[in-house]
Design a protein that fits this description.
mainly alpha, 477 residues, 27 helices
């Protein structure tokens, strides 16, 4: 590595911590950042030595690339180099494990702090407590909090905020959260914006919107300004409970107080408007949202599409669908199904088939969780094409289903047989019938009747007799 790094970095005779930090920060590639780190101390014998700043920086780089094992290896190197392992470095590893939902590794690193001669402060305990709550490890979190208090750490605003957040996660414990909130002044703690916001969000989640509104008033009386997150929680709660005009009034109140709504604020009201049959109002709010330079996200568009399709508003649904794609967002199978189903309801079968072709062309993946939806979409479109008397396209799509292993249901088989019999295409009708029986679907009496009559009408007497024999042997008459 020494020969390689000399060709990359030309170090001055005096290597300083600030220079090494600057070079590591400037390097976007984590592997090259490690080379910079290693070469800094290898350039001159008995020269530069890394301290907790440069070690902390390279650990941070590795964590941002999810290279947790290497980051921990560098912490071990710190100890070998007689470099002090700081609490902040170890907490950065805890937070990184929390980010990727590994609470057990968070606890493991926390429990190793003393091995590195790093005594955990209240900051460490609150950080780990917060991660456990965020990961819904509530049983462990409450035990951890009790242990923290037993060690003599006094409650402070950050620790009580996390405790209140934990208690707000379940409807059965939210009263305890409010009790602790009321007792905060006894511990010398003044509730802050985060305290109020957490409680308002918790109350809205269990549909206690009136209590949440009262708490918002109290918050403002106590000189604590609501954040966009707090307003959005309340607006979401009002929208979910069909208090849409009041939700709109709070949106106006936000703007009057110079609190800028975000995409989640607008999406919450759009969701409520669509949920309660006011999709046209939702379309108007979307225009306002875009005019204020808030870019709709996948949730915004999906919510709006579901509402428009529910109200059979195909024209606006297609407008939103196209805008979504123009913005670079990729509709999933569920959204394609909504539009296809709407086309079929309006007997626009060719358009439905075109949309299915587009869905296949766009490469919408067939996953286990969406398998039944793909089956439903394909069968619906084939039956629709049969209703539209489009035999060629129906058969082509049917063959595609067979090739992809998409289940064909009994109604689709029978629709195809009836279509080909009507077209006097007994060859394809026979293919479909054979595959229907192979798949374990029993043709209905009407299907047998149509097929026998058509064969007899073509004077294919022996084939008609064979079909009648199958009908009798299968107990179909």
């Amino acid at each position: 590595m020494g020969m390689r790094t000399k060709s990359i970095i030309k170090w001055p005779k005096q290597v300083t911590t600030s220079l090494v930090e600057q070079l590591i920060k400037a390097e976007r590639n984590v592997e090259k950042a490690v080379i910079v780190f290693d070469s800094a101390s290898a350039e001159y014998a008995n020269g530069f030595r890394h301290d907790h700043k440069t070690y902390g920086l390279i650990v941070s780089k590795l964590l941002s690339a999810n290279q947790f094992k290497r980051a921990e290896d560098f912490v071990d190197r710190m100890r070998q180099d007689d470099c002090r392992v700081t609490e902040d470095i170890l907490l950065s590893i805890c937070r990184a494990y929390g980010r990727v939902h590994k609470p057990h590794d968070v606890m493991r690193v926390f429990q190793k702090m003393k091995e590195y001669e790093c005594e955990p402060s209240l900051k460490s305990y609150v950080t780990v407590f917060s991660i456990l709550v965020d990961e819904n490890q509530l049983k462990v979190a409450f035990k951890f909090y009790r242990y923290m208090r037993q060690l003599g750490f006094p409650p402070n605003v950050p620790s009580l905020n996390v405790l209140i957040k934990a208690l707000c996660k379940n409807s059965g414990t939210i009263d305890s959260a409010i009790r602790i909130f009321r007792e905060m002044p006894k511990h010398g703690c003044t509730p802050d914006m985060y305290t109020y916001g957490t409680l308002i969000n918790g109350l809205c989640r269990i549909k206690k919107v009136n209590e949440a509104k009262e708490l918002l008033k109290e918050m403002e009386v106590n000189g604590c300004s609501p954040s966009v997150v707090t307003y959005t929680s309340l607006i979401h709660g009002l929208s979910e409970s069909n208090n849409l005009d009041e939700a709109m009034a709070f949106l106006e109140q936000m703007e009057a107080k110079r609190v800028d709504p975000n995409v989640y604020t607008y999406s919450s009201i759009i969701n409520g408007l669509c949920k309660y049959g006011r999709s046209s109002d939702a379309m108007e709010l979307l225009k306002v949202m875009v005019s204020k330079h808030h870019k709709p996200n996948m949730v915004t568009y999906s919510t709006l599409l579901h509402g428009l399709c529910k109200e059979k508003n195909l024209r606006d649904a297609l407008i939103i669908f196209d805008r979504m794609k123009l913005q670079g967002l990729k509709p999933d199978a569920g959204l394609y199904w909504k539009i296809i189903d709407l086309f079929c309801d309006g007997r626009k079968f060719q358009e439905a088939a075109n949309f299915l072709d587009e869905m296949v062309f766009e490469g919408i993946p067939i996953k286990r969780v969406t398998w039944s939806l793909h089956v439903k979409i394909h069968n619906t479109v084939v039956r629709s094409l049969c209703s539209a008397n489009d035999a060629n396209r129906a058969f082509l799509l049917y063959r595609g289903m067979r090739n992809k292993g998409i289940n064909v249901d009994g109604g689709t088989f029978e629709a195809l047989v009836a279509l080909f019999c009507g077209k006097r295409d007994l060859y394809k009708a026979g293919i479909v019938l054979d595959e229907m029986v192979i798949d374990g679907c029993t043709p209905g009496e009407d299907t047998w009747s149509v097929l026998v009559c058509r064969v007899w009408g073509n004077l294919k007497v022996q084939e008609a007799i064979d079909l009648m024999s199958e009908l009798v042997s299968g107990n179909q008459i």
